[in-house]
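Input:
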Amino acid sequence: MIADPLKTQSAAKMTESPQHSVAPVSARHDFVLEVNNFSVDYGVGEDMVRAVNDVTLKLRRSQVLGIAGESGSGKSTLVYAMTRLLRAPGVISSGDVKLNLTNEGDPEEVTPLSLVDASERELRNIRWSHVSIVLQSALNALNPVLRVSREFNEVLKTHRKGMTRSQRHDRSVELLKMVGLNEDRLARFPHELSGGQRQRIMIALALALDPELVIMDEPTTALDVVTQREIINELNDLRSRYGFAMIFITHDLSLLVELADEIVVMYAGAIVERAGASELYQAPRHPYTLGLLNSFPPLHGERRELAGIPGSPPDLAELPEGCSFAPRCPFAMQRCRHEAPPLTNIGDSDRSVACWLHSGDPSVRVPVELSREMNPSRTRVTALKERT
Amino acid sequence: MKSLRLPRSPKVIIGLVIVGFFIIMTVIGPWLAPYNPSSTAFAPLLSPSAHHLLGTTSLGQDIFSQLLVGARATMVVALLAGLAATILSMTVGIAAGYLGGVSDEGLSLLSNVFLAIPGLPLLIVIDSYLPVSSRSNFFVIGLIISLTGWAWGARVLRAQTMSLRNRDFVEAARIIGEKRSRIMFTEVAPNLLPVLASSFLFTVLYSIGAYVTLAYIGLTSTAVWNWGTMLYWAQANNAPLSGEWYWFVPPGICIALVGTGLALVNFGIDEFINPRLRAGGLTSRQRRKLGLPRRIRLGLTPVIHSTQNQAVVAAHAKLVSR
Amino acid sequence: MRMLARRLVLYIVTAWVAITANFLLPRLMPGNPIQTLIGKITGTVTPNEIRAIRLSFGMGFHQGLIAQYFTYLTQLLHGNFGVSITLGAPVSSILREAVPWTVGLIGLSTIFSFAIGTFGGALLGWTRGSRLDALIPTATFFQAVPYFFLATVMLLLFGSDLHWFPVLGAYSQTVTPGWNLAYISSVIRYGELPLLAIVLSSLAGWMLGMRNMMITMIGEDFVLMAVAKGLPRRKVIWHAARNAILPSIANLSLAIGLVVSGALLVELVFNYPGVGDLLLQAVLNEDYPLIQGIFLVITLAVLAANFLADIVYLWLDPRTRTVAAV
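Output:
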């Protein structure tokens, strides 16, 4: 079910040679997005706070990458900075983001574009037509004084210059149908729609130009559970039909397990675990992942007791020495308090984790919760059902 | 409780310096004045000289002395009016916002009515009926001006109070059984400090304008020197048209400077109330050092290029090393 | 529509308060100003005129306060604002002469300064941090200068010294009023400098207000979305400005009162034959019926302008106009 998860480099290697090119040339067209050693700061100089620290990730075409973490973990900062949408005082301090654009005529041929080096004009050209974004609150994301039709019209008019007025209208109606809305919604203002309708409109808008990558920043957080469920199903359906790749940010891991192919867990601006969705869910390796999994009930099934994670997210300005998670970690060892664990592949699997428990040191006893075996015969959904 | 800490921007500092200067002038101006401003002992219409820094009027009065003495009346009336208006708007605004319901409807209507009536014409009507003896009374004039200038503050304070009403600490005081008036003035009012300060400055600014205008059209006592009466006499003697700029320009500039100072301080308070107005985290020096653009455009997150500035990146790396 | 009805009620109440204040003020003030006034003019005007003046104050003979109040209201309803003491003519006909000049001058200058100020403020807000920021202290200074002072300086500089503009009065003495080209172009020429003075004085207020709102709006998600959609820059600015202008219009009620007050004095400086100049003459001569008439007319005009602004607001902000229908 999981199409081979990304092969990632070891963190140790990354720190050795930060300029090292990551993607093998032959496989380039497989990836829509490649992020290498990417760091983002708020402010510069003495007051600087590092919000994203040395993140490397790749996203295959038509796949869903989930990014999970508490608020302040840097997950939103990461994607906004990646797309150069991060507001001041955000500054990209190192690394590269490469977007591999397909050409209209030949899908086999790709043109790489570095978003870090791109000019304003280049960015404007790829925005929305290649990369679109859906925000947490559609009420804030839609201009309150414009009718819905105007939002569609504007995007089509800007990026599809050849379209006539009636073609634009037809396309808008078609897009609304895709997300299960009637065309009479076009004449409405945002405040006249329900939260679910607004978010569906945002999704329809995001798909208006058949982008290769859609970024979803907690698109269902502001909605009730039933609507959340419906929208997740719709997204799954839309993705299989239209084949866009997706980055889905949320603090709710159980949501990602149903949607994502691969999941990245972030803590204090860095990736702490990366694995296929089923692996991560069935056999978490990082104590923080375990904590996140225990914090939320799965969408299917009954509620179970929420264990949560003790303590609160760290102050990025005053990160502790060693592992950032150590102060909240139930399994913290002496070593964790003064040495930060690198993100390393574990065993001979494709997953990686940044935790000293999995360093291979025979004297360290890995707790049962973090050494669970993966059952390859079980699918994600059956695994979910068994657990609940 | 939020304490009012003004952002240390050049705007605010310049504003405070200007306002401070004129407050000092208010206090010591009359003592510094070289002559009696009403004395007609000198030759008329002298140009500025060492003896008469700003020349003399057509009656032979020393203009510089008038300017120094006039500062006191102008500022005192404006401050009185500002104070009275702020107390009025605080009472009405906080009561309306806190009590809600019918009281709110009534008080809001009251402030909206006063907001809709044009202030200056009302002032002129009231003032023109005043006996001449009252027109020289600072308190009377100040109170009348405050009557036309309190409504805006009340409206802003009401909105702010409503947002505070349901916060935990107010709720707590209510449960403990504190008296309403006590909650309003000890729990709610301190949290309104920034808004209150802003509305005070705004009213002082308005009051200076109103007082000077009344004086300019001859509706305050001509026996009291203020910057408006100076302009009144200058206008009445055709000073502007006969080119005696030293007679009418200095009081006008003083009025404008005080106003500018107050407005600049208000900028600081605005930035305190609305964090979005604050400059976005990077000082201009930091931006220059990093080779970042002067203005950070929306949708174009700046990038520190390692190849361009190795030293900066090294300094950066040192800071983030954990 | 509910909002419009509410505002209309407010304006009616305000008008009533203004009228009542007008009635009560002369009676409550110490020293009985009306009696003093009548004593002063007895002998210079006919007994008939004195009667008319008393009547316009609502002072029928041997009436109680309440009865006087109703007499006063009836007189007002019939358009009788009384008789001017100094000019000897009915206040209503004097006002009919002056009001068009004022409405033309202040109306036009308000439209100009609002348009330029809003546009400039939007630009300043968008380019925040750029060199254009240097304009802010200058704008602040102009905002603080009294209208009449700026007008005087401009009159002196551009009128008397440089002779760029004709000044004093509303049109040249050599042309005959009427629908002829010479008269109309003269009116326009004479109006230029007063207009410029009012625009320059009121511009900064609109500009700084709009700048702050623009900066606040740029922080909103929908503006970031406009960028994310790859819209051209001017479209992005439009998204923000379209919303930032709303508070500007909502605050028009405060601003109109201030602008009108200031502009009245500009008329005075330029000897412009409008209401402002009239008001000064009335104040100097203690012509109470005229002062009161002018106050009422100005108040009613400002209320009407406010109502107009409300309608514009309603038209621009769909949130106030529709009832949610899902």
